[in-house]
Design brief:
The structure holds three protein chains of three kinds. By secondary structure, chain B is an alpha+beta fold. Chain B folds into two domains: 2-72 and 83-116, no CATH class; 123-277, Cupredoxins -  blue copper proteins (Immunoglobulin-like, Sandwich), CATH 2.60.40.420. Chain B has five helices and ten strands, in the order H-H-H-E-E-E-H-E-E-E-E-E-E-E-H. In chain B, helix 2 (38-71) packs antiparallel against helix 3. Chain B is elongated. In chain C, helix 2 (21-40) runs antiparallel to helix 3 and helix 8 (220-252) runs antiparallel to helix 9. The chains are: A mainly alpha, B alpha+beta, C mainly alpha. At the A-B interface, helix 3, helix 5, helix 8, helix 9 and helix 10 of A face helix 1, helix 2, helix 3, strand 7 and strand 8 of B. The complex binds heme-A (2 copies), dinuclear copper ion (CUA) and copper (II) ion.
């Protein structure tokens, strides 16, 4: 699938690079996919810091049994906002940032299909985030209901709950607009000769992710809207007295929520599928089957949602259906894992930082996938549901999986984006410190979960103390290691060595083979033609 | 080279961390609690069985990967092969996992069906979740009519660190739920305000308590003793402070306990046990 | 993909210049959200914030759509951009379908699962004595009497109105393609008129429900699903009617060509979507 390109596409001069705006207004008004990608990535990093700081509060309180730093209400608010901010503020925008930067370059497009709407998709985010922040300062504070916003606890919450609901609406609008943009760009703006089955896998995973987003986000909007009317206008969607059902909320939420976890995972798969071949100096193994596997995951993701609800008391047929459907996802995900390993097999491997993070991803994501499989067995999940085992599972796939893929992607493309190289030795330090500390943080949570520690509690019985101490120490270590990441990025931008056009020997997508480093502001005004 | 140095350091740090964790593992509980019901021990074996399978797969897959990392390195002068697809292997590694899933799903299905079979219970108890305590209501079987509320007894002083924490810190209540050994007990869960979840790990029994609805679960404890669990659905401020404690006793002791309760109930019926029906729409 | 063939190879795709309208959109959404929260919680200042947000939104839309219309009329959009608009609009409508799906899902869940469950023997015995599973139901805790909305009165009339508006908009489209401008304007006008009539009938129906049937948003599951589904639909009809009016104004101003009129088509699609949702409502909310 390596692309042969016969016309060079850096266009003729354009009128004005930044369209007459400068300073901060340049960033506010920009319609350039690279600018917008940059905005997304910085926003995401700020949110990662914010959500991470909340995780630190959680880990601090859990360092010892007893209540020492925060009261239970505030603890619940921390848990809720940590989950929401990490998922909607840090991880999703990070990958949309990658999409903005890379998709137009990888398919040879002039920009995103709807450049102005692209600007709006981004600029809704800070406003949505501000609503979440404001909620802390309202009477009653932010909602303490968990990121899943389960009814009817949500009905008891104060003003912060309404702000959160509207924030979710805004975040949803942003995601939907972003997805429409990505789908349209991929379907309509590919360069001549760039057939769908020649696209880099990153574009494929995003195309499928965008479908998931367009299908799932409006459903979440519906769920929180019903919450809002149950709270204020006397509807009874989630109230048995009126013929509704609290469990109805869960069905609607997880109909969104399960696809959501693949919305997080698939772009990560995409990044990994670019990085591993590049450092194996060997084309991605089983490109077509990767595309099919990704689609299969996406389709299956809509029929497994009730595996989050094994304890609500579904009939046995329901338990079994959702159990079987869920276990099936292991098959296409396995295909992806096997293909990555086969790509490395007999490659000429080298281990620069992006590759280290990709290997870390592969290993640790799969570990998290296996614990997912354990949870998918309804019988076992009865024991593990709402315990730290679940927390361990999803941090392995998200806080390690998706985050490591994000790091791999940043190290991989930073030279392209900024024209400068990061410090390789420091990058390796970042990898090893992160890997060690994050495993200390989350591996032990499997044990406390198995032994019976519920999640979302600010205080715990004495037998869980050891694991919580270890976990907290790991968490502080991981958190501090991320300051190193910030330093590495800033150092690269300010004083890194000049990067080459094709910094990585094995990279083969258009942005490497076809564009200079750093990439010009407008990359493909005239489309390249692929043979 | 700096990077080698980094690697050696990092790997040894990881090793030390791993060993420390392993050492501590001996001291702290790290697996499912010892089962005292058939279901819980079935879950135990199912979990073990699945863990063995996935560990084997994991070792296989990453054995291959790390072999590649070890052998196929550019700095050893290894030249990349250029193969990049094979329908045969794709089919093989689609079908084999599918087969593995079937051999996992089979025993799992049996346990699910057993878990869900709440018929023919000897004793039926309704457990109602309140913010933040449990109400128990013996609705059928020996002891019918007994009702009481069960609240955390751990003193504030212990929670706030002004007094040393007791052995059953956060897992102790004023009124334990009492059931006879070797009898099938059916728990009906419901709630009065928000969703709670009733859980005793040693029984392998966890069921959400949903306001306005009745859901059920069962257990048959095979060993007398005191078993402790916690509410496992976030239910607001004191979610972490509403434990569930069940005392399993012999049939005789149970009869005695029932007799004592009956006289007590007659004396002072707890007033605040109201079914969700009596607290309709807010 | 069929569209590859239509994408001219060395044509410039129109990438618009930077503009301040999107951020105004965000500001307006933010003001409206904050204002709504204040209103819902009886805090002062909410209405001012909502009103301000609304004004900013209007201004933003005038300027943004103004730019787009100007670009379109000055020929900046060729076939390639047009295809983008088509994909974009299709997926936007798909997202709207999924939004309604959440509410239809709630309706089906309540009718098929939760109401019968609440009326089961066990629930009768322990929580909801005497509750029977019939639809319409306002749930076991609802004590007043109410009457459901029948299907064959006003709702049937409304069905006719919307279905005919679907026909008139199609005729208008055909007229546009045949360059019969008079017919176009006339039938587009009919479409708007039918849509507006629909809204009036619906408003009347709501009044009837509240004053004579004792059917309210607070009437348990039936009231919740009835008003939320028909209400969101009515909101979409309103938006559709406004969009159609804008298109009508543009037609009167001589915009659109027989072979270049995506704005018209996009709005027509939207109108058909609103139509189809109504059919679903008519069947599952009013009729069955
Ligand atoms: C990136 C996000 C992500 C991903 C990818 C996954 C992947 C999976 N998850 Fe996870 N999950 C979450 C995020 C994610 N999850 C979150 C956030 C929650 C909690 C939400 C909350 O409650 O707050 C959760 C919770 C959760 C639960 C509910 C637990 C509970 O609350 O009780 C379950 C239960 O089935 C589950 C299952 C799975 C499964 C089966 C997979 C599978 O996709 C994994 C598939 C992968 C593999 C199996 C490994 C690779 C495969 C092979 C090498 C092939 C060979 C293997 C076999 C034959 C077995 N997840
Ligand atoms: C992708 C999403 C994502 C990510 C990246 C993370 C990252 C982390 N998460 Fe979280 N987490 C969730 C998603 C995520 N999490 C979700 C969805 C929940 C469920 C919420 C719910 O129950 O509703 C959850 C819940 C959750 C819990 C359970 C809380 C509870 O049940 O009460 C815990 C507890 O340990 C935890 C810990 C952590 C830690 C230590 C990190 C670390 O990886 C974070 C590291 C990052 C930083 C620390 C920031 C950067 C560094 C600095 C700002 C420098 C300063 C640092 C120091 C001073 C040390 N998370
Ligand atoms: Cu009750 Cu948590
Ligand atoms: Cu899931």
């Amino acid at each position: 699938m390596s692309a042969v390109v016969d016309s060079h596409g850096h266009g003729h001069e354009h009128h004005d690079h930044h369209g007459g705006y400068s300073g901060i207004m340049r960033w506010i008004t920009t319609t350039n996919h690279k600018d917008i990608g940059t905005l997304y990535l910085w926003f995401s990093f700020i949110m990662f810091m914010t959500g991470g700081a909340m995780a630190m509060v959680i880990r601090l309180e859990l360092f010892s049994p007893g209540l020492q730093w925060v009261d239970p209400d505030f603890f619940n608010q921390m848990t809720t906002m940590h989950g929401l901010i990490m998922v909607f503020g840090a991880i999703m925008p990070a990958f949309v940032g990658f999409a903005n930067w890379l998709i137009p370059m990888q398919i040879g497009a002039p920009d995103m299909a709807f450049a102005r709407m692209n600007n709006w998709s981004f600029w809704i985010l800070p406003f949505a985030a501000s609503l979440l922040v404001i909620s802390f300062f309202m009477p009653g504070g932010a909602p303490g209901v968990g990121w899943t916003l389960y009814a009817p606890l949500t009905v008891q919450m104060g003003i912060g709950m309404d702000l959160t609901i509207f924030a979710v609406h805004l975040l949803g609008m942003s995601s939907i607009m972003g997805s429409i943009n990505i789908i349209t760009t991929i379907l309509n703006l590919r360069a001549p000769g760039m057939t769908l089955m020649r696209m880099p896998l990153f574009c494929w995973t995003w195309l499928i992710t965008a479908y998931l987003l367009v299908a799932a986000m409006p459903v979440l909007a519906g769920a929180v809207t019903m919450t809002l009317t149950d709270r204020h206008f006397g509807t009874t969607f989630f109230n048995a007295a009126g013929g509704g059902d609290p469990v109805l909320y869960q069905h609607i939420f997880w109909f969104f929520g399960h696809p959501e976890v693949y919305i997080i995972a698939l772009p990560a798969f995409g990044v990994i599928s670019q990085v591993i071949p590049a450092f194996s100096r060997k084309p991605l193994f089983g490109y077509a089957s990767m595309v099919y596997a990704t689609s299969a995951i996406a389709i299956l993701s809509f029929i497994v949602w009730a595996h989050h609800m094994y304890t609500v008391g579904m009939p046995v047929t329901g338990q079994l259906f959702f159990m079987y459907a869920t276990t099936l996802i292991a098959v296409p995900t396995g295909v992806k894992v096997f293909n990555w390993v086969a790509t490395m097999w007999k490659g000429a491997l080298s281990f620069e930082t992006p590759m280290l993070f990709a290997i870390g991803f592969l290993f640790l994501f799969t570990l998290g996938g296996f614990t997912g499989l354990v949870l998918s067995l309804a019988a076992v999940d009865i024991q593990l549901h709402d315990t730290y085992y679940v927390v361990a599972h999803f941090h392995y796939v998200m806080a390690i999986g998706a985050v490591f893929a994000g790091f791999a992607g940043v190290y991989f493309w930073l030279p392209k984006w900024t024209g400068r190289m990061y410090d390789e030795a420091l990058g390796k330090w970042h990898f090893w410190l992160s890997t060690i500390f994050i495993n200390i943080t989350f591996f032990v949570q499997h044990f406390s979960g198995l032994a019976g520690m519920p999640r979302r509690i600010p205080d715990y019985p004495l037998m869980f103390e050891t694991w919580n101490k270890i976990s907290s120490i790991g968490a502080f270590g991981f958190g501090l290691s991320q300051l190193l990441f910030l330093y590495i990025v800033l150092k690269a931008i300010r004083s890194g060595e000049k990067a080459k056009d094709k910094q990585w020997e094995g990279a083969d997508s258009l942005e490497w083979t076809h564009l200079p480093t750093p990439v010009p502001y407008h990359s493909f005004e005239t489309q390249p033609v692929l043979k | 080279m700096a990077s080698n140095w980094v690697r050696i350091l990092a790997v040894s740090a990881a090793g030390v961390a791993g060993l420390t964790a392993a050492g501590l593992a001996l001291a702290a509980p790290w697996n499912l609690q010892a089962p005292v019901t058939k279901i819980a021990s079935d879950i135990h074996s199912l979990h073990e069985y699945v863990m063995i399978l996935v560990t084997l797969i994991f070792a296989g897959v990453f054995g291959a990967m790390f072999y590649s990392v070890y052998a196929h390195r550019k700095d050893k002068g290894y030249k990349a092969a250029q193969f990049h697809e094979s329908t045969t292997v794709e089919i093989i590694w689609t079908v084999i996992p599918l087969l593995i899933l079937i051999i996992i799903a089979w025993p799992a299905t049996k346990v699910v069906i057993a878990q869900k079979d709440t018929s023919q219970a000897d004793l039926t108890i309704k457990a109602t979740g309140y913010q933040w305590k449990w109400g128990y209501d013996y609705v059928k079987g020996e002891g019918e009519g007994i009702r009481f509320v069960s609240t955390l007894t751990t003193p504030r002083d212990q929670i706030e660190g002004r007094a040393p924490k007791g052995e059953n810190y956060l897992l102790e209540v004023d009124n334990e739920m009492v059931v006879p050994v070797n009898k099938k007990v059916r728990i009906l869960t419901t709630a009065a305000d928000v969703i709670h979840s009733w859980w005793i790990p040693a029984f392998g029994a966890k069921q959400d308590a949903i306001p306005g609805f009745i859901r059920d679960i069962h257990f048959k404890a095979e060993k007398p003793g005191i078993y402790r669990g916690q509410c496992t659905e976030l239910c607001g401020k004191d979610h972490g402070f509403m434990p569930i404690v069940v005392r399993v006793v012999s049939a005789d002791e149970y009869t005695k306990w029932v007799g004592m309760q009956k006289t007590k109930v007659a004396a002072d019926a707890p007033k605040n046990i109201v079914a969700a029906a009596e607290t309709p729409r807010q | 993909m069929a569209h590859d063939a239509t994408a001219p190879q060395h044509h410039h795709y129109y990438v618009p210049q930077p503009m301040p309208w999107p951020i105004l959109g965000s500001v307006s959404l933010w003001l409206m959200a904050l204002g709504a929260v204040f209103i819902f919680n009886s805090m002062s200042g909410g209405w001012i914030s909502v009103a301000a947000g609304f004004m900013v939104m209007l201004y933003m839309m005038f300027r943004w759509f103004g730019d787009v219309i100007r670009e379109s009329e000055s020929g900046k959009y060729a076939r390639w951009e047009d295809v983008s608009f088509r994909w974009g609009m299709s997926f936007f409508i798909f997202s709207e379908v999924m939004f309604f799906a959440a509410f239809f899902g709630a309706l089906f869940y309540i009718r098929v699962l939760s109401v019968p469950d609440l009326a089961s023997l066990q629930h009768n015995e322990l929580v909801w004595p005497g509750f029977g599973a019939q639809w319409p139901s306002a749930g076991p805790g609802f004590e007043e009497k109410f009457s459901p909305m029948g299907a064959w009165g006003l709702p049937a009339i409304n069905t006719m109105l919307l279905l005919s508006s679907g026909v008139t908009v199609t005729i208008a489209h055909w007229a546009l393609k045949e360059n019969k401008r008079g017919l176009l304007n006339l039938f587009l006008f009919f479409t708007v008129a039918l849509g507006v009539t629909f809204l009036f009938v619906q408003a009347y129906e709501y009044g009837h429900a509240y004053s004579e049937l004792n059917l309210k948003l607070t009437t348990g599951a039936y009231g919740s699903t009835f008003f939320m589904l028909t209400g969101f639909h009515g909101f979409h009809v309103t938006v559709g009617a406004i969009m159609l009016s804008v298109i009508l104004a543009r037609c009167l101003a001589g915009h659109f060509k027989p072979d270049h009129h995506f704005a018209f088509e996009g709005v027509a699609w939207y109108w058909h979507f609103v139509d189809v949702v109504w059919l679903g409502l008519f069947i599952f909310v009013y009729w069955l």
